[in-house]
């Protein structure tokens, strides 16, 4: 048959780049370099004879031709992916792809996933832990766990946890530090991460507490780094009860206040609307929901 179709790898890269409108994000999703993404897009544009993206210093945007091409190309690529998964899942190892916030992946899902593998030894769970939101509609992920609020366009969603904010610290710090009238350690730094940088202000606002005078803050790029610093007694943090439920239950972190504040966003499990899932994906989803019950908090 004459070669009338572009290289499939070019189309795969185009699908990821069209979904994110970012060479860098597409590169991260595909585990290649941004330069490799750019080269494949240029090759596809040369093959088609049209410009698919407009390049700007701050990123790229789909051209009108690119938008039309994406609308026509992405659905059959999803069908091809689904067909490939169905036939490969009929024997041997079965795979489910999950995109999830790093903090929840490390602190909640990580300690539990081995139990799932014990019951489903032939299943591979591919966990993509990244704070960058992947558009589930145009990606090859089966399931997403998102921190936000409905609606989630093009997705079916179900709530997983009721997440609350509460200041926490290690027992060693609580035993030795002076505490103010609100239970917060005096002279000890507040540990923050860039993703949830406003948690403390939200907790103060809803509890009516004033910001402590001369409060020192230390900011980290990852929530897991905040947790590690807090566990070592270097300061206190605002804990998300859904993420830290195990550490709180184990007594490794203890609440500094009995006042808990409902988080502005919550964790939801998402799947593509009107898109059938494989049997093993359904099984994995049921397992996640079971892990998040019965009391509506993690574990």
Question: Any overview of this molecule?
Answer:
The protein is α/β, with parallel strands linked by helices. 42% of the residues lie in helices and 21% in strands. It has helices spanning 8-20, 23-30, 34-48, 64-89, 102-119, 171-176, 199-207, 223-231, 241-249, 279-291, and strands spanning 53-56, 59-62, 94-100, 123-129, 143-148, 155-159, 164-169, 190-193, 217-220, 236-240, 254-255, 261-262, 266-272. Strands 7, 8, 9, 10, 11 and 12 form a six-stranded mixed sheet that branches. α7 (199-207) links the parallel β8 (190-193) and β9 (217-220). The longest helix has 26 residues, at 64-89. The termini are far apart. Mean pLDDT is 89; it is low at 295-299.
Main features:
299 residues; alpha/beta; Arc Repressor Mutant, subunit A; D-Maltodextrin-Binding Protein, domain 2; 3 domains
Unreliable residue runs: 295-299
Secondary structure tally: strands: 13
As for the number of domains, it is 3
Question: Biggest sheet, open or closed, and with what strands and sense?
Answer: 6 strands, mixed
Structural class, judged by helices and strands? alpha/beta
Report how far apart the termini are: 55 Å
Mean pLDDT: 89
What form results from the Cα inertia axes? globular
Keywords: DNA-binding, Transcription, Transcription regulation
Family: Belongs to the LysR transcriptional regulatory family.
GO molecular function, one term: DNA-binding transcription factor activity
Protein name: HTH lysR-type domain-containing protein
SSE blueprint and pairings:
Layout: H1 8-20, H2 23-30, H3 34-48, E1 53-56, E2 59-62, H4 64-89, E3 94-100, H5 102-119, E4 123-129, E5 143-148, E6 155-159, E7 164-169, H6 171-176, E8 190-193, H7 199-207, E9 217-220, H8 223-231, E10 236-240, H9 241-249, E11 254-255, E12 261-262, E13 266-272, H10 279-291
Parallel strand pairs: 3-4, 3-5, 8-9, 8-10
Antiparallel strand pairs: 1-2, 5-13, 6-13, 7-10, 7-11, 7-12
């Amino acid at each position: 048959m004459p070669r009338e179709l572009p290289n499939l790898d070019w189309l795969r890269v185009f699908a990821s780049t069209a979904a994110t409108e970012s060479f860098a994000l597409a590169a991260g999703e595909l585990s290649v370099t941004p330069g490799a993404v750019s080269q494949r897009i240029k090759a596809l544009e040369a093959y088609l004879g049209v410009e698919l993206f407009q390049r700007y210093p701050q990123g790229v945007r789909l051209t009108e031709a690119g938008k039309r091409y994406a609308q026509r190309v992405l659905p059959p690529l999803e069908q091809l992916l689904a067909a490939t998964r169905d036939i490969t899942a009929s024997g041997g190892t079965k795979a489910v792809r999950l995109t999830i916030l790093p903090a929840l992946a490390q602190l909640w899902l990580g300690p539990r996933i081995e139990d799932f593998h014990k019951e489903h030894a032939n299943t591979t769970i591919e966990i993509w832990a990244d704070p960058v939101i992947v558009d589930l509609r145009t990606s090859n992920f089966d399931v997403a766990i998102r921190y936000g609020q409905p609606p989630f366009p093009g997705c079916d969603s179900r709530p997983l946890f009721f997440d609350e904010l509460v200041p926490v610290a290690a027992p060693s710090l609580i035993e030795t530090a002076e505490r103010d009238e609100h239970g917060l350690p005096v002279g000890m730094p507040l540990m923050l991460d860039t993703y949830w940088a406003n948690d403390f202000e939200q907790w103060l606002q809803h509890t009516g507490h004033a910001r402590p005078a001369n409060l020192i803050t230390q900011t980290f790029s990852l929530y897991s780094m905040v947790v590690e610093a807090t566990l070592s007694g270097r300061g206190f943090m605002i804990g998300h009860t859904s993420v830290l439920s195990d550490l709180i239950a184990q007594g490794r972190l203890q609440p500094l206040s009995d006042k808990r504040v409902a988080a502005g966003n919550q964790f939801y499990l998402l799947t593509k609307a009107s898109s059938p899932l494989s049997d093993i994906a359904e099984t994995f989803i049921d397992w996640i929901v079971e892990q998040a019950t019965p009391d509506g908090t993690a574990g």
